[in-house]
């Protein structure tokens, strides 16, 4: 027990856990790419296993069920998206003008909620939306509106500005009337009205 | 069997059913008044029975459970509110200028969703929002925006304009930060921006 190889390194998980975490990420990345390419509904555990180069048993062991996998992909995707907003390339990430960041946010949030609405459906009871997903988006919009010099009740204006981007999740049945291109175009007009531009 | 008293009148429910329907309305009105006065959480079946002047057994027979009663009050209240919008006194009902109707709609919808958010919580599994409640409000806002001569994607603008009024139902935990007076004030500002006034 005095062999230093048996002592965990301070601040680093033991190698087995690190491997497990890496495998989990690989599986989630493979699953997310398949979902983006083919739609959540048509993605099978077999296809995820094949894309990640592991056996189907491994996928089941990690995620218990197809629903469990979909719920994990949902969380993974939201976390990735938040990281892009906070530190990814401009204009979605920092460094661009606030108006350009707001437009990039709108486009990217809409695509993300379209994907997530599908994942929430496929995750069934395992799923539900990542806690904090809405409040992260709301905080970011409030920040950008403030940067744009918008006055008034910023929190309430942010609620209004986010609403059309949430349509895929809140009212999925209305999406036939609101294809993504139309939502984005209308949303830019809304953002201009709210920001007074 | 040839006695006409045994034949139901064409187009009229039999007397027993008419009485039952009237009793149901009386109970729902009594329950709704109590909910408005004391808050849904504190309303008991005993209090509703006493207010309507019937035995508690009658209330249980009609609504099965406290949750069932709360769900019925929710539907009853939404139906009443829709009737006021369509044919009640101006400015909520027809006859006022579209801008005044829009302001009356915002105030009244906010109060209604505050009440309904409570009822949805108390109705538990029996409840859930009345189907069509959102789409009725959305249709009315689209109509008023059109009357106001607003151009653009009216359906999408209506989604944005409704969102803050839906806060009590969609994000009840944020209500501590958004008391009703603040929501209404911010909402009028939002309506001005969206309608370009």
- Helical content class of chain A: 55-70%
Estimate the strand proportion of chain A: under 5%
Multimer state: homodimer
Number of strands of chain A: 0
Number of helices of chain A: 8
When the domains of chain A are counted, the total is 2
Biggest protein-protein contact in the assembly = A-B, 27 and 27 residues
Give a quick account of the main beta sheet of chain A: strands, pairing sense, barrel closure: none
Structural class of chain A: mainly alpha
Q: What is the average of the pLDDT values of chain A?
A: 88
Low-confidence stretches of chain A: 1-5
Backbone shape of chain A:
globular
Radius of gyration of chain A: 20 Å
- Span from first to last CA of chain A? 68 Å
Features:
homodimer; 197 residues; mainly alpha; Arc Repressor Mutant, subunit A; 2 domains; 8 helices
Q: Could you characterize the architecture of this molecule?
A:
The structure is a homodimer of 197-residue chains. By secondary structure, chain A is mainly alpha-helical. Chain A has two domains: 1-63, Arc Repressor Mutant, subunit A, CATH 1.10.10; 65-197. Chain A is built from eight helices and no strands. Chain A has helices at 15-38, 45-52, 56-63, 66-87, 98-123, 133-147, 154-170, 180-195. The radius of gyration of chain A is 20 Å and the shape is globular. The relative contact order of chain A is 0.10. At the A-B interface, helix 7 and helix 8 of A face helix 7 and helix 8 of B.
């Amino acid at each position: 027990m005095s062999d230093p190889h048996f002592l965990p390194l301070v601040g680093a998980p033991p190698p087995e856990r690190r491997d497990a975490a890496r495998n989990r990420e690989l599986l989630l990345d493979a699953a997310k790419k398949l979902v983006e390419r083919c739609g959540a509904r048509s993605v099978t555990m077999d296809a995820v296993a094949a894309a990640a180069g592991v056996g189907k048993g491994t996928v089941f062991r990690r995620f218990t069920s197809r629903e469990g996998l979909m719920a994990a992909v949902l969380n993974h995707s939201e976390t990735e998206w938040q990281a892009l907003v906070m530190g990814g390339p401009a204009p979605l990430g920092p460094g661009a003008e606030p108006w350009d960041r707001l437009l990039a946010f709108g486009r990217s949030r809409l695509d993300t909620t379209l994907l997530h609405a599908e994942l929430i459906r496929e995750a069934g009871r395992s799923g539900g939306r990542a806690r904090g997903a809405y409040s992260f988006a709301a905080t970011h919009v409030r920040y950008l509106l403030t940067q744009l010099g918008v006055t008034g009740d910023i929190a309430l204006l942010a609620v209004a500005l986010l609403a059309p981007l949430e349509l895929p999740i809140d009212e999925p049945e209305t999406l036939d009337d609101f294809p993504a291109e139309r939502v984005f175009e209308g949303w830019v007009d809304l953002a201009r009205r709210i920001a007074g531009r």
